[in-house]
Amino acid sequence: MSIRYIVPTLLVGLSGLASATVVNQAITEAEVLAAQKGWCQALVDISAANDKGGQKAAKDLAEKVIDGAYGYQMGAVLFKPTLTVAPQTFRTTRAGALAYFVGGDTAFPKDTGFALKGWTRCEAKNAAVFIAGDSATTMGNVMITGKDGKVTTVDKTWKYVKDDAGKLRIVVHHSSLPYSGS
Asked: What is the pLDDT of residues 94-106, one digit of tens each?
């Protein structure tokens, strides 16, 4: 009895086909670190836009940042900003995120614009990065420096997925002030 190898025969038969398109939604650590760096730079840029051109300029930039970094076009984003209170603690819509970053929305009357605070520097330091194929989650601190040189540290968790175009999108963003122990 002889054994026939079918796979090599099939491969030879398919060799004349055009190469297949491969879709790989796997996320790399480099992509995650670049996304965090981009988020930090965007925060500083929105503050600078406010200083130079006022709230309108900051809002225009913040809209571009939100549309480019977050996954609101994919559905609800699980966004819990640092300085929000009930009943508007969670910002699952683009409008809610924009109001938090730049204020000026009567539907969110307590928002004064977190990104308008004159931030001059921002850096993310991860405690851990967990990548599982097509999603990545980070947890750590973000240190934000104000014009006066004072550094504000927040605890931050982000979860990323790739959209259909392969662009990394934030779909979970939880931020809080560190527990002070008192």
From this structure: 999 999 999 999 9
